[in-house]
What does this fold into?
Amino acid sequence: MKILYFAKLKQYIGKNSDFIEIKDNKRIYEVIDELKKRNKNYRKAFNEVTNLQYAVNCEYVNIEETVKDKDELAIFPPVTGG
Amino acid sequence: MKILYFAKLKQYIGKNSDFIEIKDNKRIYEVIDELKKRNKNYRKAFNEVTNLQYAVNCEYVNIEETVKDKDELAIFPPVTGG
Amino acid sequence: MKIFFQKESFLVEEKFKKFSKTNSTAGSIISFVGKVRPTNNKKSITNIEIEIYEKMALLQMKKIIFKLKKKYKILDFLIVHRFGKVKPQENILLVIVASEHRKEGFRFIEDLVDWLKVKITFWKKENYLNDSEWIEQKESDKKILITSN
Amino acid sequence: MKIFFQKESFLVEEKFKKFSKTNSTAGSIISFVGKVRPTNNKKSITNIEIEIYEKMALLQMKKIIFKLKKKYKILDFLIVHRFGKVKPQENILLVIVASEHRKEGFRFIEDLVDWLKVKITFWKKENYLNDSEWIEQKESDKKILITSN
It folds into this structure.
């Protein structure tokens, strides 16, 4: 599954995307828990960037949503467009 | 007193202004009653142009308002600006 | 903070460019352009003729702007309103407003245009090929008149 | 009915002129321009940097426009939103809408700009002389977010 990071989250993690393998469905918070185990950049990012938003295949969802391997998951702070 | 006519009212009366002498204060409807005595153009104008508006010295007033000789009275149909 | 009543046609892009330059630090610039439509009730319009009571229009407009500026914080505005004969597709009215934040600009311009539609002492007559007709106030605008009093 | 996300700066007057020409029979043309202000919290801004999730931005924008077009009768619109580095006094966002009547144009453009401020997947970072800061969503915009959900 492709994971995209944006803005402050991307800056803290130090890259704009990851690919992970998901065998069955997983909840977004489970995916994040796994990412946080990778290294302290991820831990810092997910602990310090507050009020994160989630989108699966370009649709806003909440952290309880399940994702599949073919999905594109995006994680980002609240948007500030316009 | 100067009286100004605009739009359809002006067209019906056939001119854009009149000067009349007012000795004491007069109500606007009294002024109009006098104007209607002048000729059939005035009568037709004041009978057929409905929903007339009144302004004394550039301020909207109602037909009961009194006017003095130094005032400028404007009479017109509802505006359609913009 | 300028108001123009003029017979001459004008180009919105030129007015806009100049206004933007003098308000280069504003966060929001909103504009409204009202144009003559080519038909009304399926009748083809040759031109519209706008008659004005200029003295009252200016005085009343200054009063409403004074009120609106107290209500909404804006930085600058420009109003250009044509009178005389105006052809289809030409601009009748341009309002531009600069503000720090968009919300106050939107409220200011919408209130001002509402006012212009129902209160400014301008009268429109539509000229068709063979006849002409004075425009009546729209029902929707009458409602605005009542609520804004 | 066009949407542009672009790095390049643009001139509002040129976009306006072209849009007006292709919508010459519209009765109302309303535009909103959002610009970079020179300071924020008394800090002088060198430039702002806008990062975008383009695929989602486009998809979501098409959805909101589809909804708004059902709600308000408009004839045409143009949206230009910059990304990358934008300097103070430059335009970030332009929205123009043509409609027969102004009220529907105003509602369409205001709803659309509200949406753009709180929903489009764009993120702004302000660069100052010696440091930089990601912009936080404004309290006033959060409220819009809640009521528009």
